[in-house]
UniProtKB/TrEMBL annotation:
Source organism of the structure: Patella caerulea
Protein name: Uncharacterized protein
Spans traversing the lipid bilayer: 32-56
Location of the region described as Disordered in the Swiss-Prot/TrEMBL record: 354-407
InterPro entries reported for this sequence: NAD(P)-bd_dom_sf (IPR036291), SDR_fam (IPR002347)
Superkingdom in the source lineage: Eukaryota
GO molecular function: oxidoreductase activity
UniProt xrefs under CDD domains: retinol-DH_like_SDR_c_like
Low complexity: compositionally biased ranges: 358-369, 385-407
Pfam families assigned: adh_short
Keywords, sorted A to Z: Membrane, Oxidoreductase, Transmembrane, Transmembrane helix
Stored PANTHER family: PHOSPHATIDYLINOSITOL-GLYCAN BIOSYNTHESIS CLASS F PROTEIN-RELATED (PTHR43157), RETINOL DEHYDROGENASE 14 (PTHR43157:SF64)
Length: 407
């Protein structure tokens, strides 16, 4: 009996020890659990940021080894961000790079830095304020007088920030991001045509899908948000790219829209308040560097065998599809004519003739009259054709056929 009692006593002691251990473990768990949960949550957040960063920063390098020796490239907004990185890369390839900057002093400082970095003395800065139509015209006039050719025009500069107005009284985001580039391209069209084969590169964004073009409220008086205004300007830019192809491709000028991805630049510097601070901090961690973001722009400026993709959108050095409404010819024509009007170029607006009148005109004009009209037609390409002129079949010119070989 004593042995049995002793065993029971030992058993009770072990049970008591286990109970005590369980109680101690529960106390420890209560103390450690919040820290454990916090660690798991923080780890998941860090993992999420890491994966997001991998996704957002994913990019493809331009693989073309083509040089730009002997070619002249104009880049707007080239004193910082994407423009500066693009200018550096194209100067490295031997091109004559013109930095079109709103602040000429800053532009000249950047030009000196690039010249020293890539050992190319053909990098110059010129003043071009895209928020002032008169300044744009002065820039284009000086450029055309001093430069023999313009082989590539890169419409890159952009504004994102509180609602403001350009020097001409237009909503600033629309005026700088789109209309200023429209006017600059129109002024340089003859120089580009004489430099054919030439290229126009319009930097846009995938946020164009959220944009809306309300021609009755271009000033955005009904409602204005920084993001909505930016999306609208990028929608206008991608529609403009389609129209560049329709208007200029017969002159062997090819146009490409580029979405560089989310890039850490100074674009967010004007976004006010706490939101702006958060976005700027996040961009430094998550977004691509300008050197990564400029690769698709460089690709469209130098790559061979992309002539057939004129008018298309490029992402990560590859052509991609756009929304169907962007291809709407009526939308493009309306934006083009409204833009001409806003730039004071009403004389260039030519409405399409009625189909039956156009058909009659095309069949009744004798060959001699056709030849005379061709001789009298001005050299600068027009937005559309007069009713009395039949539309010629668009065949690739000899220059266009040799485009890839020349580069």
């Amino acid at each position: 009996m004593s042995t049995t009692k002793h065993l029971k006593h030992l058993k009770n002691l072990k049970i008591d020890e286990v109970d005590e251990n369980i109680e101690e473990l529960e106390v420890v768990v209560e103390d450690v659990f919040p820290a454990l949960v916090g660690t798991v949550v923080v780890s998941l957040i860090i993992l999420g940021i890491f994966l997001s960063r991998l996704y957002i920063r994913w990019s493809v390098d331009c693989t073309s080894k083509n040089k730009m020796t002997g070619k002249t490239i104009v880049i707007t907004g080239a004193n910082t961000g994407l423009g500066r990185a693009t200018a550096t890369e194209l100067a490295k390839r031997g091109g004559r790079v013109i930095l079109a900057c709103r602040d000429k002093v800053k532009g000249e400082a950047v030009a000196r830095t690039i010249r020293k970095k890539v050992n190319n003395q053909n990098v110059i800065a010129m003043k071009c304020d895209l928020g002032n139509l008169r300044a744009i015209k002065d820039f284009a006039t000086e450029l055309c007088e001093n430069e023999r050719e313009v082989n590539v025009l890169i419409n890159n500069a952009a504004y994102m920030g509180p609602k403001g107005s350009t020097a001409d009284g237009l909503e600033k985001c629309f005026g700088v991001n789109y209309l200023g580039h429209f006017y600059l391209t129109w002024l340089l069209q003859e120089k580009l045509r004489k430099s054919a084969p030439a290229r126009i590169i319009n930097v846009t964004s995938d946020c164009y899908v959220k944009g809306k073009l309300d021609f009755d409220d271009l000033a955005m008086t009904k409602s204005y948000t920084i993001f909505d205004a930016y999306c609208r300007s990028k929608l206008a830019m991608i529609v403009f790219n389609q129209e560049c192809h329709r208007h200029y491709s017969t002159g062997v000028i090819f146009s490409y829209a580029v979405h560089p991805g989310a890039v850490s630049t100074d674009l967010l510097r004007n976004w006010p308040g706490l939101t702006g601070n958060i976005l700027r901090a996040a961009s430094r961690v998550l977004f691509k560097s300008p050197e990564q973001g400029c690769q698709t722009i460089v690709h469209c400026a130098i790559a061979d065998k992309i002539r057939e993709h004129s008018g298309k959108l490029f992402v990560n050095c590859r052509q991609t599809k756009v929304k169907e409404y962007v291809r709407d010819k009526e939308l493009g024509k309306k934006l083009w004519n409204v833009s001409l009007h806003l730039c004071g170029l009403d004389s260039e607006i030519v409405e399409d003739p009625e189909p039956d009148v156009a058909a009659a005109g095309a069949t009744e004009i004798p060959e001699a009259a056709k030849a005379a009209k061709e001789a009298e037609r001005p050299a600068a390409p027009q937005p559309s054709k007069p009713a009395s002129q039949p539309q010629p079949a668009q065949q690739p010119s000899a220059s266009a056929q040799s485009y890839d070989n020349q580069e």
